[in-house]
Amino acid sequence: MRVHIGCDHAGLELKSHLINRLTELGYEPVDHGPFVYDALDDYPVFCIRAAEGVARDREKGLDSLGVVIGGSGNGEQMAANKVTGIRCALAWSEETAKLARDHNNAQVVAVGGRMHSLEDMTKFVEIFLAEPFSEDERHVRRIDQLHAYDADGVRPPLPDSAKGLGPAEDQD
């Protein structure tokens, strides 16, 4: 499996470590940078490229996932999620890393280089990469609703249980 990786200066140490570790595990890491430490670099430059690499590979039918890394992982997640067709989840525990794939079929995971130990972040990434999507109907349905909204901007309809109970209906 190909793994596209991008970060900013706060994720540079983890990125280098991950490239070595993923290679040992038989993955094919693709480094989208940065390649040198620059305290003023901007995460969108590298994280968008990593997410685009995943999207391109998947369009070609290739098995590909991605990892974006920053100080908190928040901005990096937001950047990756700007790429059409990409779902990027922020992992802050082993469980969130697993659920990102199992329930949400995320193709990219974001981790915070200043939030956890190197060992913990490595474990989050390994779990994310190894976990398959469950294909459970309720998860597929929810992901399909996101795709539809991206395509046409039309919100999913309210379920009967929510009608007449709050401001959500007022916007339909």
From TrEMBL:
<feature type="region of interest" description="Disordered">
    <location>
        <begin position="150"/>
        <end position="172"/>
    </location>
</feature>
<dbReference type="GO" id="GO:0004751">
    <property type="term" value="F:ribose-5-phosphate isomerase activity"/>
</dbReference>
<dbReference type="InterPro" id="IPR036569">
    <property type="entry name" value="RpiB_LacA_LacB_sf"/>
</dbReference>
<feature type="binding site">
    <location>
        <begin position="8"/>
        <end position="9"/>
    </location>
    <ligand>
        <name>D-ribulose 5-phosphate</name>
    </ligand>
</feature>
<dbReference type="GO" id="GO:0009052">
    <property type="term" value="P:pentose-phosphate shunt, non-oxidative branch"/>
</dbReference>
<dbReference type="InterPro" id="IPR011860">
    <property type="entry name" value="Rib-5-P_Isoase_Actino"/>
</dbReference>
<dbReference type="Pfam" id="PF02502">
    <property type="entry name" value="LacAB_rpiB"/>
</dbReference>
<feature type="binding site">
    <location>
        <position position="138"/>
    </location>
    <ligand>
        <name>D-ribulose 5-phosphate</name>
    </ligand>
</feature>
<comment type="similarity">
    <text>Belongs to the LacAB/RpiB family.</text>
</comment>
<dbReference type="GO" id="GO:0019316">
    <property type="term" value="P:D-allose catabolic process"/>
</dbReference>
<keyword id="KW-0413">Isomerase</keyword>
<dbReference type="InterPro" id="IPR003500">
    <property type="entry name" value="RpiB_LacA_LacB"/>
</dbReference>
<feature type="binding site">
    <location>
        <position position="114"/>
    </location>
    <ligand>
        <name>D-ribulose 5-phosphate</name>
    </ligand>
</feature>
<comment type="subunit">
    <text>Homodimer.</text>
</comment>
<comment type="pathway">
    <text>Carbohydrate degradation; pentose phosphate pathway; D-ribose 5-phosphate from D-ribulose 5-phosphate (non-oxidative stage): step 1/1.</text>
</comment>
<feature type="binding site">
    <location>
        <position position="104"/>
    </location>
    <ligand>
        <name>D-ribulose 5-phosphate</name>
    </ligand>
</feature>
<feature type="binding site">
    <location>
        <position position="142"/>
    </location>
    <ligand>
        <name>D-ribulose 5-phosphate</name>
    </ligand>
</feature>
<feature type="binding site">
    <location>
        <begin position="71"/>
        <end position="75"/>
    </location>
    <ligand>
        <name>D-ribulose 5-phosphate</name>
    </ligand>
</feature>
<protein>
    <recommendedName>
        <fullName>Ribose-5-phosphate isomerase B</fullName>
        <ecNumber>5.3.1.6</ecNumber>
    </recommendedName>
</protein>
